[in-house]
Amino acid sequence: MAINDTDMGPIRLPPYDPEILAIEDTQHRPIPSSLDELLELRKEELQRDDSIYNDPEIDIQDINVSGLDCEIPAIVLTRKGGTTSEPRPSILFLHGGGRVMGNVYVGLAAVSELVKDLDAVIISPGYRLSPDVHGMVSVEDCYASLVWMSQNLATYNIDPARLMIAGVSAGAGIAAGVTLLARDRKGPRLCAQLLACPMLDDRFDNLSSRQFEKGRGFYTPWGRYAWKLVLGDDIERGTVSHYVAPGRAQDLSDLPPAYIDAGSGEPFRDEDIAYATKLWECGVQADLHVWGGGCHGFDLFYPTEIGAEAIKTRYAWLKRTLRERKEPIIPFIVLPSTTLSSTTPLVTYAQVPGPLGDLFQSFGSSHVAKVPLSGSLVVTSGQPGFDRDGQLVTECLEKEFEACLDCVEAALVAGSVKAGLVGAHKFTAYFVDIRHEPLMQEVWRKRLPEHRPTWVSIGVSQLAMPGMHIEISAEAVLFK
After folding, report:
1. Fewer CB in 10 Å around end: N or C, the chain?
2. pLDDT tens digit sequence for 387-407
3. With respect to CATH, is domain 2-322 assigned 3.40.30.10?
Protein backbone atom coordinates (compact mmCIF):
# COMPACT_ATOMS: atom_id res chain seq x y z
CA MET A 1 0.00 0.00 0.00
CA ALA A 2 1.24 3.54 -0.75
CA ILE A 3 0.12 7.04 0.09
CA ASN A 4 0.97 10.27 -1.73
CA ASP A 5 3.34 12.75 -0.18
CA THR A 6 3.92 15.87 -2.26
CA ASP A 7 7.38 16.47 -0.80
CA MET A 8 8.70 12.92 -0.59
CA GLY A 9 6.77 11.15 -3.36
CA PRO A 10 4.74 8.01 -2.70
CA ILE A 11 5.30 6.52 0.76
CA ARG A 12 4.72 2.82 1.15
CA LEU A 13 3.24 1.38 4.32
CA PRO A 14 4.38 -1.83 5.99
CA PRO A 15 1.45 -4.28 6.19
CA TYR A 16 -0.41 -4.94 9.43
CA ASP A 17 -0.60 -8.41 10.88
CA PRO A 18 -3.83 -9.96 9.51
CA GLU A 19 -5.28 -10.53 13.01
CA ILE A 20 -4.58 -6.93 13.99
CA LEU A 21 -5.96 -5.55 10.74
CA ALA A 22 -9.25 -7.36 11.31
CA ILE A 23 -9.61 -5.88 14.82
CA GLU A 24 -8.17 -2.44 14.24
CA ASP A 25 -10.89 -1.51 11.77
CA THR A 26 -13.30 -1.50 14.70
CA GLN A 27 -11.04 0.54 17.01
CA HIS A 28 -10.90 3.89 15.24
CA ARG A 29 -11.50 6.85 17.56
CA PRO A 30 -11.75 10.32 15.99
CA ILE A 31 -9.75 13.19 17.46
CA PRO A 32 -11.88 15.28 19.86
CA SER A 33 -13.15 18.48 18.25
CA SER A 34 -13.48 20.24 21.61
CA LEU A 35 -12.37 20.06 25.21
CA ASP A 36 -15.84 18.78 26.14
CA GLU A 37 -15.40 15.82 23.80
CA LEU A 38 -12.01 15.05 25.37
CA LEU A 39 -13.54 15.15 28.85
CA GLU A 40 -16.26 12.74 27.70
CA LEU A 41 -13.58 10.35 26.46
CA ARG A 42 -11.88 10.58 29.86
CA LYS A 43 -15.13 9.67 31.59
CA GLU A 44 -15.33 6.47 29.56
CA GLU A 45 -12.01 5.38 31.08
CA LEU A 46 -12.73 6.26 34.71
CA GLN A 47 -13.95 2.82 35.67
CA ARG A 48 -11.50 0.69 37.61
CA ASP A 49 -10.03 -2.56 36.30
CA ASP A 50 -12.05 -5.21 38.13
CA SER A 51 -9.77 -7.96 36.84
CA ILE A 52 -7.06 -6.57 39.12
CA TYR A 53 -9.37 -5.56 41.99
CA ASN A 54 -10.94 -9.00 42.05
CA ASP A 55 -7.65 -10.90 41.88
CA PRO A 56 -7.54 -12.93 45.12
CA GLU A 57 -3.74 -12.74 45.23
CA ILE A 58 -3.36 -8.95 44.99
CA ASP A 59 -3.92 -6.24 47.60
CA ILE A 60 -4.58 -2.70 46.39
CA GLN A 61 -3.91 0.29 48.63
CA ASP A 62 -4.97 3.85 47.80
CA ILE A 63 -2.37 6.46 48.76
CA ASN A 64 -1.55 10.12 48.16
CA VAL A 65 1.89 11.31 47.11
CA SER A 66 3.06 14.83 47.93
CA GLY A 67 3.80 16.58 44.65
CA LEU A 68 5.10 20.06 43.92
CA ASP A 69 1.83 21.81 44.68
CA CYS A 70 -0.79 19.15 45.32
CA GLU A 71 -1.47 15.60 46.46
CA ILE A 72 -1.20 13.00 43.70
CA PRO A 73 -3.52 9.97 44.01
CA ALA A 74 -1.90 6.59 43.43
CA ILE A 75 -2.44 2.89 44.05
CA VAL A 76 0.03 0.38 45.47
CA LEU A 77 -0.20 -3.27 44.47
CA THR A 78 1.27 -5.95 46.75
CA ARG A 79 0.86 -9.69 47.12
CA LYS A 80 -2.00 -10.63 49.42
CA GLY A 81 -1.33 -12.58 52.57
CA GLY A 82 2.01 -11.12 53.56
CA THR A 83 5.43 -11.50 52.01
CA THR A 84 8.65 -13.32 52.59
CA SER A 85 11.41 -11.74 54.62
CA GLU A 86 13.44 -11.20 51.45
CA PRO A 87 13.62 -7.66 50.01
CA ARG A 88 11.24 -7.14 47.11
CA PRO A 89 11.56 -5.50 43.68
CA SER A 90 9.42 -2.46 42.96
CA ILE A 91 8.06 -0.86 39.79
CA LEU A 92 6.79 2.67 39.27
CA PHE A 93 4.23 2.14 36.49
CA LEU A 94 2.99 5.09 34.39
CA HIS A 95 -0.20 4.67 32.37
CA GLY A 96 -0.75 5.65 28.76
CA GLY A 97 -3.34 7.89 27.14
CA GLY A 98 -1.40 10.58 25.29
CA ARG A 99 -0.95 12.51 28.57
CA VAL A 100 -4.50 13.75 27.94
CA MET A 101 -6.46 10.64 29.02
CA GLY A 102 -5.99 7.49 31.06
CA ASN A 103 -5.93 6.48 34.71
CA VAL A 104 -3.96 4.34 37.16
CA TYR A 105 -5.37 1.10 35.69
CA VAL A 106 -4.68 1.62 31.97
CA GLY A 107 -2.12 -0.96 30.86
CA LEU A 108 -1.45 -2.07 34.44
CA ALA A 109 -2.07 -5.70 33.52
CA ALA A 110 1.25 -5.57 31.63
CA VAL A 111 3.13 -5.69 34.96
CA SER A 112 0.60 -6.72 37.61
CA GLU A 113 1.46 -10.42 37.32
CA LEU A 114 4.89 -9.59 38.74
CA VAL A 115 3.17 -8.96 42.08
CA LYS A 116 2.40 -12.67 42.23
CA ASP A 117 5.41 -14.06 40.40
CA LEU A 118 8.19 -11.99 42.01
CA ASP A 119 6.44 -10.54 45.08
CA ALA A 120 6.94 -7.12 43.46
CA VAL A 121 5.52 -3.85 44.78
CA ILE A 122 3.90 -1.75 42.03
CA ILE A 123 2.99 1.91 42.37
CA SER A 124 0.75 3.51 39.73
CA PRO A 125 0.24 7.28 40.14
CA GLY A 126 -2.65 9.29 38.72
CA TYR A 127 -0.45 12.03 37.31
CA ARG A 128 -2.16 15.20 36.12
CA LEU A 129 -3.26 15.37 32.49
CA SER A 130 -3.21 18.03 29.79
CA PRO A 131 -4.65 20.49 28.99
CA ASP A 132 -5.32 20.84 32.74
CA VAL A 133 -1.55 21.19 33.14
CA HIS A 134 1.32 21.69 30.70
CA GLY A 135 5.01 20.96 30.28
CA MET A 136 6.91 19.51 33.22
CA VAL A 137 3.96 19.01 35.58
CA SER A 138 3.19 15.39 34.71
CA VAL A 139 6.92 14.54 34.78
CA GLU A 140 7.33 16.16 38.20
CA ASP A 141 4.23 14.33 39.48
CA CYS A 142 5.79 11.02 38.48
CA TYR A 143 9.22 11.97 39.83
CA ALA A 144 7.56 12.77 43.16
CA SER A 145 6.05 9.28 43.05
CA LEU A 146 9.50 7.79 42.49
CA VAL A 147 10.77 9.75 45.48
CA TRP A 148 7.85 8.42 47.53
CA MET A 149 8.93 4.89 46.60
CA SER A 150 12.48 5.57 47.72
CA GLN A 151 11.24 7.00 51.01
CA ASN A 152 9.12 3.92 51.72
CA LEU A 153 11.66 1.17 51.10
CA ALA A 154 11.38 -0.10 54.66
CA THR A 155 7.57 0.13 54.76
CA TYR A 156 7.22 -2.31 51.86
CA ASN A 157 10.53 -4.15 52.30
CA ILE A 158 11.71 -2.91 48.90
CA ASP A 159 15.16 -3.81 47.61
CA PRO A 160 16.84 -0.49 46.65
CA ALA A 161 18.86 -2.35 44.02
CA ARG A 162 15.66 -3.34 42.19
CA LEU A 163 13.79 -0.09 41.74
CA MET A 164 12.43 0.03 38.16
CA ILE A 165 10.33 2.46 36.16
CA ALA A 166 7.92 1.33 33.44
CA GLY A 167 5.35 2.94 31.22
CA VAL A 168 3.13 2.48 28.20
CA SER A 169 2.84 4.96 25.31
CA ALA A 170 2.65 8.46 26.86
CA GLY A 171 3.48 6.92 30.24
CA ALA A 172 6.61 5.40 28.71
CA GLY A 173 7.64 8.83 27.44
CA ILE A 174 7.16 10.26 30.92
CA ALA A 175 9.13 7.30 32.33
CA ALA A 176 12.05 8.20 30.05
CA GLY A 177 11.85 11.82 31.25
CA VAL A 178 11.74 10.80 34.91
CA THR A 179 14.75 8.56 34.35
CA LEU A 180 16.70 11.53 32.96
CA LEU A 181 15.54 13.67 35.87
CA ALA A 182 16.61 11.05 38.42
CA ARG A 183 20.05 10.93 36.81
CA ASP A 184 20.46 14.71 36.85
CA ARG A 185 19.13 15.11 40.40
CA LYS A 186 21.39 12.30 41.61
CA GLY A 187 18.59 9.97 42.60
CA PRO A 188 16.60 7.98 43.33
CA ARG A 189 18.63 5.36 41.51
CA LEU A 190 16.80 3.12 39.03
CA CYS A 191 17.91 -0.35 37.97
CA ALA A 192 16.05 -0.37 34.62
CA GLN A 193 13.46 1.37 32.45
CA LEU A 194 10.72 -0.40 30.49
CA LEU A 195 9.40 1.77 27.66
CA ALA A 196 6.49 0.16 25.78
CA CYS A 197 5.72 1.96 22.50
CA PRO A 198 6.96 5.23 24.06
CA MET A 199 5.74 8.69 23.03
CA LEU A 200 9.09 10.48 23.04
CA ASP A 201 9.33 13.26 20.45
CA ASP A 202 7.00 16.14 19.60
CA ARG A 203 8.66 16.99 16.28
CA PHE A 204 7.31 14.21 13.98
CA ASP A 205 10.26 14.55 11.60
CA ASN A 206 10.72 10.91 10.62
CA LEU A 207 9.40 8.37 8.13
CA SER A 208 6.96 6.55 10.40
CA SER A 209 5.27 9.85 11.29
CA ARG A 210 4.68 10.51 7.59
CA GLN A 211 3.62 6.94 6.88
CA PHE A 212 0.76 7.09 9.37
CA GLU A 213 -0.64 10.56 8.73
CA LYS A 214 -3.83 8.72 7.80
CA GLY A 215 -5.11 5.54 9.30
CA ARG A 216 -7.05 3.93 12.08
CA GLY A 217 -6.43 3.62 15.79
CA PHE A 218 -3.65 5.87 17.09
CA TYR A 219 -2.14 7.67 14.10
CA THR A 220 0.08 10.74 13.64
CA PRO A 221 -2.61 13.46 13.91
CA TRP A 222 -3.61 12.01 17.29
CA GLY A 223 0.00 12.43 18.42
CA ARG A 224 0.12 16.04 17.23
CA TYR A 225 -3.14 16.76 19.00
CA ALA A 226 -1.83 15.33 22.27
CA TRP A 227 1.54 17.10 22.10
CA LYS A 228 -0.15 20.45 21.39
CA LEU A 229 -2.17 20.08 24.60
CA VAL A 230 0.86 18.90 26.59
CA LEU A 231 3.28 21.62 25.48
CA GLY A 232 0.98 24.63 25.17
CA ASP A 233 2.99 27.72 24.27
CA ASP A 234 6.34 25.93 24.68
CA ILE A 235 6.22 24.88 21.01
CA GLU A 236 6.02 28.46 19.71
CA ARG A 237 8.58 29.68 22.25
CA GLY A 238 11.00 26.91 21.35
CA THR A 239 11.38 25.97 25.03
CA VAL A 240 10.40 22.30 24.94
CA SER A 241 12.30 20.50 27.72
CA HIS A 242 14.02 17.20 26.98
CA TYR A 243 12.52 15.91 30.23
CA VAL A 244 9.09 16.41 28.66
CA ALA A 245 10.10 15.18 25.18
CA PRO A 246 13.06 12.83 25.82
CA GLY A 247 13.53 12.30 22.09
CA ARG A 248 15.14 15.76 22.09
CA ALA A 249 17.78 14.75 24.67
CA GLN A 250 21.37 14.74 23.42
CA ASP A 251 23.01 13.08 26.43
CA LEU A 252 21.61 9.69 27.45
CA SER A 253 24.73 8.55 29.26
CA ASP A 254 24.68 7.10 32.78
CA LEU A 255 21.11 5.84 32.43
CA PRO A 256 19.89 2.39 33.51
CA PRO A 257 19.34 -0.39 30.93
CA ALA A 258 16.22 -0.01 28.80
CA TYR A 259 13.68 -2.27 27.12
CA ILE A 260 11.96 -0.53 24.20
CA ASP A 261 9.37 -2.01 21.88
CA ALA A 262 7.07 -0.76 19.15
CA GLY A 263 5.02 -2.03 16.24
CA SER A 264 6.21 -1.64 12.67
CA GLY A 265 2.85 -0.06 11.85
CA GLU A 266 2.74 2.89 14.26
CA PRO A 267 3.84 6.55 14.13
CA PHE A 268 6.18 6.24 17.15
CA ARG A 269 8.25 3.46 15.56
CA ASP A 270 11.15 5.55 14.26
CA GLU A 271 11.49 7.85 17.28
CA ASP A 272 11.64 4.72 19.45
CA ILE A 273 14.34 3.22 17.24
CA ALA A 274 16.23 6.53 17.36
CA TYR A 275 16.05 6.61 21.16
CA ALA A 276 17.43 3.09 21.45
CA THR A 277 20.20 4.01 19.01
CA LYS A 278 21.05 7.10 21.07
CA LEU A 279 21.22 4.98 24.23
CA TRP A 280 23.71 2.65 22.52
CA GLU A 281 25.70 5.64 21.26
CA CYS A 282 25.93 6.91 24.87
CA GLY A 283 27.09 3.54 26.20
CA VAL A 284 23.76 2.40 27.69
CA GLN A 285 22.38 -1.10 27.22
CA ALA A 286 19.04 -1.28 25.43
CA ASP A 287 16.85 -4.12 24.19
CA LEU A 288 14.89 -2.99 21.13
CA HIS A 289 11.99 -4.96 19.65
CA VAL A 290 10.06 -3.81 16.57
CA TRP A 291 7.17 -6.20 16.02
CA GLY A 292 6.32 -6.70 12.35
CA GLY A 293 2.67 -5.98 11.65
CA GLY A 294 1.97 -4.37 15.02
CA CYS A 295 0.07 -1.12 15.42
CA HIS A 296 0.32 1.20 18.42
CA GLY A 297 -0.56 -0.68 21.61
CA PHE A 298 -1.27 -3.89 19.71
CA ASP A 299 -0.06 -6.14 22.54
CA LEU A 300 -2.10 -4.46 25.26
CA PHE A 301 -5.45 -4.07 23.55
CA TYR A 302 -5.70 -6.74 20.88
CA PRO A 303 -5.82 -10.49 21.71
CA THR A 304 -3.63 -11.72 18.86
CA GLU A 305 -0.82 -14.21 18.45
CA ILE A 306 1.75 -11.50 17.81
CA GLY A 307 0.48 -9.57 20.84
CA ALA A 308 0.85 -12.63 23.06
CA GLU A 309 4.41 -13.12 21.81
CA ALA A 310 5.29 -9.48 22.51
CA ILE A 311 3.92 -9.73 26.06
CA LYS A 312 5.80 -12.97 26.66
CA THR A 313 9.09 -11.44 25.48
CA ARG A 314 8.66 -8.29 27.55
CA TYR A 315 7.66 -10.27 30.62
CA ALA A 316 10.73 -12.50 30.33
CA TRP A 317 12.92 -9.38 30.30
CA LEU A 318 11.10 -8.00 33.35
CA LYS A 319 11.59 -11.19 35.32
CA ARG A 320 15.24 -11.48 34.30
CA THR A 321 15.92 -7.85 35.22
CA LEU A 322 14.14 -7.98 38.58
CA ARG A 323 15.59 -11.26 39.81
CA GLU A 324 17.32 -10.78 43.15
CA ARG A 325 20.75 -9.20 42.79
CA LYS A 326 23.62 -10.38 44.90
CA GLU A 327 25.47 -7.08 44.95
CA PRO A 328 23.71 -4.41 47.01
CA ILE A 329 23.28 -0.87 45.76
CA ILE A 330 23.33 1.82 48.43
CA PRO A 331 20.16 3.89 48.01
CA PHE A 332 20.86 7.55 47.35
CA ILE A 333 17.69 9.55 47.82
CA VAL A 334 17.15 13.12 46.69
CA LEU A 335 13.76 14.84 46.65
CA PRO A 336 12.80 17.48 44.07
CA SER A 337 14.42 20.75 45.05
CA THR A 338 11.14 22.66 44.95
CA THR A 339 9.59 20.14 47.33
CA LEU A 340 12.60 19.92 49.59
CA SER A 341 12.83 23.66 50.06
CA SER A 342 9.48 23.51 51.80
CA THR A 343 11.11 21.44 54.56
CA THR A 344 12.96 24.57 55.67
CA PRO A 345 10.24 27.22 55.32
CA LEU A 346 11.72 29.51 57.96
CA VAL A 347 14.91 30.15 55.98
CA THR A 348 14.40 32.97 53.49
CA TYR A 349 16.79 34.09 50.76
CA ALA A 350 17.17 37.50 49.15
CA GLN A 351 19.12 39.19 46.37
CA VAL A 352 20.38 42.75 46.06
CA PRO A 353 18.12 44.39 43.43
CA GLY A 354 19.50 45.08 39.99
CA PRO A 355 22.32 43.60 37.90
CA LEU A 356 24.31 42.37 40.92
CA GLY A 357 21.36 40.30 42.10
CA ASP A 358 20.86 38.92 38.60
CA LEU A 359 24.53 37.92 38.56
CA PHE A 360 24.28 36.04 41.87
CA GLN A 361 21.11 34.30 40.69
CA SER A 362 22.91 33.14 37.53
CA PHE A 363 25.55 31.60 39.80
CA GLY A 364 22.83 29.60 41.59
CA SER A 365 23.38 31.49 44.87
CA SER A 366 21.83 34.25 46.98
CA HIS A 367 23.24 37.39 48.57
CA VAL A 368 21.82 36.65 51.99
CA ALA A 369 20.01 33.97 53.97
CA LYS A 370 17.84 34.91 56.95
CA VAL A 371 17.83 32.12 59.56
CA PRO A 372 15.74 32.46 62.75
CA LEU A 373 17.55 31.23 65.85
CA SER A 374 14.99 28.65 66.87
CA GLY A 375 16.66 25.30 66.40
CA SER A 376 19.93 23.43 66.17
CA LEU A 377 22.76 24.59 63.92
CA VAL A 378 24.29 21.75 61.91
CA VAL A 379 27.80 22.41 60.58
CA THR A 380 29.67 19.88 58.46
CA SER A 381 33.41 19.62 58.25
CA GLY A 382 35.07 20.18 54.89
CA GLN A 383 34.08 17.34 52.55
CA PRO A 384 36.35 16.06 49.76
CA GLY A 385 35.28 14.46 46.48
CA PHE A 386 35.35 10.80 47.57
CA ASP A 387 33.41 7.96 45.97
CA ARG A 388 31.47 5.39 47.98
CA ASP A 389 34.56 3.27 48.44
CA GLY A 390 36.39 6.16 50.13
CA GLN A 391 38.63 6.82 47.12
CA LEU A 392 39.32 10.31 45.80
CA VAL A 393 37.63 10.83 42.43
CA THR A 394 40.32 11.76 39.94
CA GLU A 395 38.51 10.97 36.69
CA CYS A 396 37.84 14.63 35.92
CA LEU A 397 37.15 17.87 37.78
CA GLU A 398 33.41 17.77 37.15
CA LYS A 399 33.14 14.23 38.57
CA GLU A 400 35.22 15.26 41.60
CA PHE A 401 32.92 18.24 42.23
CA GLU A 402 29.83 16.03 41.92
CA ALA A 403 31.35 13.52 44.35
CA CYS A 404 32.16 16.37 46.74
CA LEU A 405 28.49 17.40 46.79
CA ASP A 406 27.53 13.76 47.36
CA CYS A 407 29.78 13.70 50.43
CA VAL A 408 28.36 16.99 51.74
CA GLU A 409 24.85 15.64 51.32
CA ALA A 410 25.72 12.43 53.14
CA ALA A 411 27.20 14.45 56.02
CA LEU A 412 24.09 16.63 56.25
CA VAL A 413 21.81 13.59 56.30
CA ALA A 414 23.99 12.06 59.00
CA GLY A 415 23.40 15.25 60.99
CA SER A 416 19.61 14.73 60.70
CA VAL A 417 19.16 17.24 57.86
CA LYS A 418 16.85 14.94 55.93
CA ALA A 419 16.52 17.37 53.04
CA GLY A 420 20.24 17.04 52.33
CA LEU A 421 21.74 19.82 50.23
CA VAL A 422 18.47 21.71 49.91
CA GLY A 423 18.22 21.88 53.71
CA ALA A 424 21.48 23.86 53.92
CA HIS A 425 21.51 27.64 53.74
CA LYS A 426 25.27 28.24 53.51
CA PHE A 427 28.15 26.54 51.68
CA THR A 428 31.86 27.31 51.82
CA ALA A 429 34.06 26.01 49.00
CA TYR A 430 37.86 25.83 49.20
CA PHE A 431 39.65 25.74 45.82
CA VAL A 432 43.30 24.94 45.14
CA ASP A 433 42.73 26.85 41.90
CA ILE A 434 40.05 29.53 42.25
CA ARG A 435 39.60 29.47 38.47
CA HIS A 436 37.67 26.23 38.99
CA GLU A 437 34.84 28.16 40.66
CA PRO A 438 32.76 28.64 37.43
CA LEU A 439 32.79 24.88 36.82
CA MET A 440 31.60 24.29 40.39
CA GLN A 441 28.77 26.77 39.83
CA GLU A 442 27.77 24.90 36.68
CA VAL A 443 27.74 21.57 38.52
CA TRP A 444 25.59 23.10 41.26
CA ARG A 445 23.07 24.62 38.82
CA LYS A 446 22.65 21.30 37.02
CA ARG A 447 22.05 19.50 40.29
CA LEU A 448 19.70 21.90 42.10
CA PRO A 449 18.69 24.73 39.75
CA GLU A 450 15.94 26.04 42.06
CA HIS A 451 17.94 26.17 45.32
CA ARG A 452 20.05 29.32 45.76
CA PRO A 453 21.80 29.33 49.15
CA THR A 454 24.67 31.60 50.13
CA TRP A 455 28.14 30.59 48.90
CA VAL A 456 31.63 31.57 50.03
CA SER A 457 34.56 30.64 47.78
CA ILE A 458 38.11 30.68 49.14
CA GLY A 459 41.38 30.03 47.33
CA VAL A 460 43.98 27.97 49.24
CA SER A 461 47.48 26.78 48.46
CA GLN A 462 46.70 23.11 49.12
CA LEU A 463 44.18 20.77 50.72
CA ALA A 464 44.54 17.79 53.05
CA MET A 465 45.31 15.16 50.41
CA PRO A 466 47.43 15.30 47.26
CA GLY A 467 45.26 15.51 44.16
CA MET A 468 42.33 17.25 45.87
CA HIS A 469 41.00 20.28 43.98
CA ILE A 470 38.04 21.23 46.18
CA GLU A 471 36.58 20.87 49.66
CA ILE A 472 33.10 22.04 50.69
CA SER A 473 31.45 22.54 54.07
CA ALA A 474 27.81 23.36 54.76
CA GLU A 475 25.54 24.83 57.42
CA ALA A 476 21.87 24.04 58.08
CA VAL A 477 19.35 24.64 60.84
CA LEU A 478 17.06 22.00 62.35
CA PHE A 479 13.99 23.90 63.48
CA LYS A 480 12.09 23.02 66.59
Report:
1. C
2. 887 788 877 889 999 999 999
3. no
